Sequence to fold (535 residues):
Amino acid sequence: MDKKITPLSKLFLVIIFFILYAPIFFLIFYSFNSGETMYDFEGFSLEWYRQLFHDTRLFIIVLNTIVVALLSSLFSTIIGILGALAIHMAKRRQTKNALLSFNNVLIVSPDVIIGASFLILFTMAGVKLGFYSVLLSHIAFSIPIVVLMVLPKLTEMSPSLIDAARDLGASSWDVMSKVIIPYISPGIFAGFFMALTYSLDDFAVTFFVTGNGFSTLSVEIYSLARRGISLNINALSAILFLFTFALVVIYYFITQRNKPNDMGVRKR
Amino acid sequence: MENKLTRNLYKVPYLLWILLFVIIPIALVLYYSFFDIEGHFSLGNYQKFFTPVYLQMTLSSFWYAFLITAISLIIAYPTALLLTKTKHKQLWLLLIIVPSWINLLLKAYAFLGIFGTYGISNSFLKVIGIGQQQILFTDFSFVFVSVYIFIPFMILPIFNSLNELNPTLVDAAKDLGASKWTTFRRVIFPLTIDGVKSGCQVTFIPALSLFMLTRLIAGNRVITLGTAIEQHFLVTQDWGMGSTIAVFLIIIMVLIMLLTNTRKRGV
Fold:
């Protein structure tokens, strides 16, 4: 392919990057405003951060969000691995395809539909709306993502690895814990990570299934933003941006480290 | 594997998940769509859906989703193409994706400030002599913010399919005397159509249903299918009508999936 980049296309990329990042930095910039608006920068102050850190209600909401994200990604990773194994081991092609289609339903469904249908489900099942309904729905919509992250690793694994382990006398459990799981671990990490970000980012589904007493960060931001501009949100977004960036850096190094070399064997 | 019981036992949680969170919710939506607001069985919701009010809403929702998808594609394709030509392309790609990990509501909120009456975009318009405009709460701002949000999701699949493209094919086209444009039209684009399709898929379907954007940015001037569902479920508590709209949204979704079915072809 043509490897040269003309100055014009460089400019195009610069503009795209500018447009993508400008709103975020705009938010962060105004979080240091001593005034109260997002158009008139009066002076530098950390007042909004101070308010943020003294807001216990918000602190509880942040804790809720993190707890839900960690728990839901943990459970969805476990069930997702089992699901990927079930799809991988299915003997008949039709079974495999059917399972895969069911798996993908929640990925392609719009959030509103997931939220609305889960709301009906929880109401019918008598689950009280709140922490558990949110946790269950986060687990539910994260499972297919984990499956999709783990499955390629399973298909890429040579079946002779398992045969070799069996020939050497490994039990089913040994094959699983000493051969399959280590081999697919990059997929598992990626799946867990994706589940984490999906859960942290989700608004629409949570909005439907959260009751009055329970709130996550996204829902809280929505209700604050509907009331108008409040620079508290700016300060919050600056912190969240740093957090996201840290996650990205970690993710980048994990994927770089786990990149398989040509033999498909991990380097020590 | 010898132990048949354990072999099937591990499937239980996953199959239970499929039953509880995939099949039953959709069945429940379908079931609820046959009940009116008083809880009587009726086909009234479906009749109501085919009145001009709802049909017009569906059409306009489609139109906006189409517009958002088309604009995203026009911007995302060249970006992806240029990204594959950069050094450290994985790093640049990652930087494109970072904004998509920032909470969607925060991005929408940023535009409340940018597009506001005294916001930065209006000061800019004033400087270049156009003068103050109402930008926030218009359909322009809705489309702009939606495109902004969907661009990373559109770039990613296109980038991946461009990245998988065998460069020798492009060289071959060039050797055979194809111009840059012909190479693009006859070789590069057809071979990356799968990426384009999945990009459109991940943009079009959510664009039909993003209700928080219409609420925050478009100030209820744009009603999408998603907004209508949210309205019926959480505001008017008319779950039956909400479910009916949801049923149609599901049908549309399935149609789009079939239309953009990405089948792997060997190259």
